[in-house]
Amino acid sequence: MESLIGFIISLAFAIFLFIDAPRHNKSRWLWAILGFIFGPIALGIYFIKTGRKVAGWIITILAILFYIVIIVVMVLAVALFANGFS
Asked: Which of 8, 7, 67 lies closest to 41, judged by CA?
């Protein structure tokens, strides 16, 4: 179920970038592929490159912080399982 939600969100980013990119003279296929693979980071960079800098930086920073938190939680979980909970 979680992977389906992630797939739908990535697909939504890709569709938005595919539709919006020609308005700013950008390659629609390139940005759609980047949006599908990299998600919110690609969306933030796209906003920065198209002049919506505040929204772009907010999205990019929040996405990076989210990914860092996920990585830290995963490292802590591995450390707890390796060393035990005591």
From this structure: 67
- What would the DSSP string read from start to end of 2-32? HHHHHHHHHHHHHHHHHHHGGGGT--HHHHH
d(CA 86, CA 84) in angstroms, rounded, equals 6
Position 80 pLDDT exceeds 80:
yes
Residues 6+ apart with CB under 8 A from 10: 35, 36, 37, 39
The full set of domain ranges for the chain reads 2-83
Contact, 67 vs 80, CB < 8 A? Answer: no
Instruction: Kindly state the tokens that stand for 41.
Output: 């980071």
Residue 64 pLDDT exceeds 90:
yes
pTM of the model: 0.81
